[in-house]
Amino acid sequence: MKIAIVAPSCTLDPTIPTRLAPLAAEHGHEVYFHPQCFLSEGHFAGPDAARVAALVEVANDSAFDAVWFARGGYGACRVAEGALAQIDTPAARGKAYLGYSDAGFLLAGLYARGIGRPVHAPMPSDLNRAGGEGAVARVLGWLNQNEPRHAELVSASTAQQIPKSRAETWTPDQVRGDEVSLLNAAFNLTVLSQLLGTLLQPDLTDHILMIEEVGEYMYRIDRSLFHLTSNLGIRRIKGLMLGRCSDIPPNTPDFGRDVESIAREWCNRSGIAYLGEADIGHDINNAIIPFGETI
Tell me: the pLDDT tens digits for 215-244? Predict the structure, then answer.
C-alpha cells in the first residue's frame, strides 16, 4: 500500500520520514511525504493555499491508497472547506483518511460528504512520544486489514444504558456474544464543538460518539460539553463515551468537578445516554476508530 502524508496544520519534524519509512516497510507499505509537510509560515506548515493544494493533490491521485495526516496543532479548519470542494475523484472516494486532534476538522468534512473512509487514528508525529512507535505500527498494521482491528466495541452491559427506543433499532448482526457493535465516530472535544453548525458538521444520528481533550481548563471543557450536547444534531446520537482528558491546567479557584461528572451532567440535561470510558486520547494508546463502521 502506498500512503501519502500531508500536513494540513503544523510543520512536521523533519526526522520523522527516516524513522517512519522502515516501520512502514516492515508492514509492506511505502510512505510518501509531500514536500509541503516541511514548509513553515508562522504557525502553519506553509500558507493556506499550499496546504490546500497538497491535500487535494494526494487525495485525487490514484497512486495513493491512503492519506495520513502528519500531525495536529492548529490550521486544518482554515483549509478544510476549500480542499474538500476539490476532492471529487473516484480515487479520492476510495481512500482511507487517517488522523486525530486538529485533523478532526477534515475527518468530519469528509464524513459529511461521504468521501472515502475517515479514521480516527494515531499520526506520524506520534513517533515523538515515548512508546509512540507502537502506536504508529498499529495504524500500519490496521491498514493491512489482515491484522486485528482496533475499532471501539461497546459491551452488552454498556449497551443497556442506551434508551430502549434506540436499542430496539439494533439488528441481530450487531450483537456478537457479549459485545454490541454500533456506528462509531471520535473527535477531540474542542475541535468538534468548534465545527458544529458549519458545513463540516457530519450527521452522527445513531452513532456512538467518543470525545477526548488535552490541555484545556476544566471550565473550557464544561463550556464545550454544554455547546456539544446542546446541538440538535448531536442529540440524535445513540450515546457519548468519554476518552482521556489529559494535561488539564489547574483552575483558580478549583473548579470543584471532575471531567466525568461534567460529562454525565450535560448528557443528563440533554437526554443523551452516557456510556462510560472510550480508549482515545492524546497518547500512545489512542485507539483506531473507523467512522461509521460496525464490526
Answer: 999 999 999 999 999 999 999 999 999 999
Count the helix, strand and coil residues of the chain and give each as a percent rounded to the nearest 5: 40, 20, 40
Of 235, 184, 241, 249, nearest to 212 by C-alpha is: 241
pTM of this prediction?
Answer: 0.90
Kindly state the cell numbers that stand for 189.
472535544
Q: What span, in angstroms and rounded, lies between the C-alpha atoms of 278 and 153? A: 9
Quick one: CA torsion of 69, 260, 269, 210, rounded to 10 degrees?
A: 20
CA-only gyration radius of the chain, Å: 19
- Reference 66, options 150, 12, 147, 139; nearest CA is 139
Is residue 167 within 8 Å of residue 173, measured between CB atoms? no
Architecture of domain 154-290 in this structure: 3-Layer(bba) Sandwich (3.50)
Spell out the domain ranges in the chain.
Answer: 2-144, 154-290
CATH 3.10.28.10 fits 2-144, yes or no: no
| CA separation for the pair 189, 3 (Å, rounded) | 27
Cis peptide before 124 (omega within 30 of 0): no
pLDDT in tens, 61-86: 999 999 999 999 999 999 999 999 99
Cα 278 from Cα 71, distance rounded (Å)? 21
Q: What residues contact 263, with CB distance under 8 A and at least 6 apart?
A: 225, 240, 242, 274
